[in-house]
Amino acid sequence: MKALFFPSFLCLSQESSRAMSMARKALPTARTRCDWIPVTSTGMRKGKALPASWTAGLFAKLVLCIVLLLAPLPAFAVNPDEILPDATQEHRAREISSQLRCMVCQNQSIDDSNADLARDLRLLVRERIKDGDSDGQVIDYVVSRYGEFVLLKPRLNARTIILWAMPVLLLLIGGLSLLAVLRKRPAQRTVAALTAEEQARIEDLLKK
Amino acid sequence: MIIEIGHYALVLALATALIVSVMPMIGARRGDMAMMTLATTGSLALFALVLMSFGALTWAYVVSDFSVVNVWENSHSLMPLIYKFSGVWGNHEGSMMLWLLILCLFSAMVALFGRNLPETLKANVLAVQALIASAFLFFILLTSNPFLRLDPAPAEGQDLNPVLQDLGLAIHPPLLYLGYVGFSVCFSFAVAALIEGRIDAAWARWVRPWTLAAWTFLTAGIAMGSYWAYYELGWGGWWFWDPVENASFMPWLAGTALLHSALVMEKREALKIWTVLLAIITFSLSLLGTFLVRSGVLTSVHSFATDPTRGIFILCILAIFIGGAFTLFAWRAPSLKSGGLFAPISREGALVLNNLILTVATGTVLTGTLYPLVLETLTGEKISVGAPFFNMTFGLLMLPLLVAVPFGPLLAWKRGDLLGALQRLYLVAGLSLVAGLVFFYIYNGGPILSIFGLALGFWGMFGAVADLWYRGNFGKVKLGVAFRRLSGLPRSTFGTALAHFGLGVTVLGIFAATTFGTETVTEMKPGASVDAGGYTLTFDGMREAAGPNYTESRGHFTVKRGSVSVAETWSSKRLYTARRMPTTEAGILSFGASQLYVSLGDPMADGGIVVRIWWKPFILCIWGGALVMMFAGFVSLSDRRLRVGAPSRKAKAAKVVKPGLEAAE
């Protein structure tokens, strides 16, 4: 739905089409194991693989857009055939899926996306769960293939420390400066009173 | 010809805006009345010119003049008339025109209704407004001119993006912009105050109606956009923490904080410098939002009209205005006299807590929105910051605020009695918890912890009622006396209570919909049935149909409760012919505040079709609460004190001596 068509009509924006084109290239080779496991993602994630200038890639993008528009409609988000028979496993799969980014989409989890890659990932998550992986193991596995970019809630590390610390930091700064203001206030008042007296004295002196 | 007139009017508007942004400011310095009054007439003329230009563009859309590039790109002769109107702002150029039009509308309103403003302040405010207008006029004329022609003119247009062909688009952007851009007035007032180096309670009173109006429209605009996304995108989500949504949400958060801090300034002369800073921050976030949306710098589902070269231009505007305002602030703020003491436990103390949390929340959303962008620019590393991050951080921040909301209005100014407020709210807390429990019992399902979430919604609602209850002194005096007391209260009191009540309704809706909602994804053949939310949905079959500029295949569903047929709906998949672009139109049925949401998926080989059915209990409360908040804004705006207009500075000084009037508030 949201998923359904946004990618195609948005693909003029550099970001999405870049990712999309990679995914398109990636997919044919993707069905190597068990018919669905996506390719080694390392190639996909490398910055160098991106077109050096996006104007150069514009034509390719345009073609891609047309291809995508004329292509048969992609599948929806979770389809009946993907759903696991075990309800708890399926529930876990949904939970995990909502944490993983659909890499070819703009701002969607694989759970909401219709893209082929999202479907592949959903199946991958379910296959891993069926194989007895814990939630953490599934996520680790996906991250090892696709990199941190795939996580909608980034992990705490040196790169994301500022992101995670920001709310706490802001609260601390705000709270401390409030305390400072509250403490300073009475002092300020006495200072103000003094200056008023001084002011009067100065005026007196000036009059003389 | 009309197009050229519109184009010319836009150029004239630029000249006017430049004059209005310079002359009155000089006049205010020199005390030259003639130069200062130029601001009023100039702002009105500016609005007239921009209106004329906007009208010309609208005309081109209505008559489908495809010799205009912008019309050709975004319209189609077969499009329904309403979408020809709304299509004007359904693209980059047109939406910038709308932005400008609303900016000039606000200037004109300040010019008209600001009669009791001191001349210098009014001149400075209008000059700053005109300065913003000239920046955007430059932007439109140089990078996003909607009046460019095509030769030869094509016979048919390329159609408006189908997702935008909806009544939602007709209403959502104008409302959003009225809010977004409305904060420009607060910004201009803040900058003018900094230029004059003078700021007092009267200033807060003057800014109040503008803040309130902008906030009201922004609330409505965000709620409208959320509902539009909910029904148009076809998967039942209503908030995605999409960067573009965040872009409109951040000014709302900051604006809400501004609304509350201006109150402290007006009543207690405290938080002056902070309020000025907040006014600058709020509009800066609006500008930032415009930049994020218009430049396409962020990848998001909303970036339907983007161009990076324009991004750099807006970035410059952003840098000049935000940088300029903050520099001015750093330079002049220390010279502003800060006044007003307050005890931590008091009405103003509660409002400061509100400001602290809202500002931190704004900062968190801002960080989350920009972090991936900054990180990628600096290190080349890509990370995602999505809904799970925001739900966690923002949610945690909002909890204490939502708990604190009912306390605020019950605390007195200067020195509040927390114990007294607690005693008054004991009953409310108990009632909320019971209501949460009952609710949870009836709609059983979901984690036990959600009882507290539901109770939090009731807490907000009951707390607002309790506020009015204690103000009327119900239960202690005769009913008639209490009602008379209540009717004697200023309307802004009712505005406060209503807005807080609406917030409670929204919170309740959020928790109820997420806790008790169900989702069914299944393949259905004609005649098949599915149960959802106590209703039985029967799929009757598919049918082909055609609209003015699309074809669709629609599925018919009958909804039964027990064996009684209660409703029916169509859910369809459309193909817009001009762009060969498919969309889904969900079938949505409302039962009270709850909804059944039916969306079609892919047809299967064996004649069945994938159907997604969501049961969304009390989902309408989410937007209903926002509507109540909007209504509360209007109630507050109609307050006599705002209608009559702010007192002049002398009158204000006299008014301080009459504590009786203030105490009643």
Automatic annotation (TrEMBL), chain B:
Residues 315-640 form the Cytochrome c-type biogenesis protein CcmF C-terminal domain. GO terms for molecular function: heme binding; heme transmembrane transporter activity; lyase activity. Residues 89-295 form the Cytochrome c assembly protein domain. InterPro entries: CcmF_C (IPR032523), Cyt_c_assembly (IPR002541), Cyt_c_biogenesis (IPR003567), Cyt_c_biogenesis_CcmF (IPR003568). It is a multi-pass membrane protein. It comes from the Bacteria. It holds the Pfam family CcmF_C. GO terms for cellular component: plasma membrane. PANTHER family: CYTOCHROME C ASSEMBLY PROTEIN-RELATED, CYTOCHROME C-TYPE BIOGENESIS PROTEIN CCMF. Required for the biogenesis of c-type cytochromes. Possible subunit of a heme lyase. This is Heme lyase CcmF/NrfE family subunit. It comes from Neorhizobium lilium. The lineage of its organism: Bacteria, Pseudomonadati, Pseudomonadota, Alphaproteobacteria, Hyphomicrobiales.
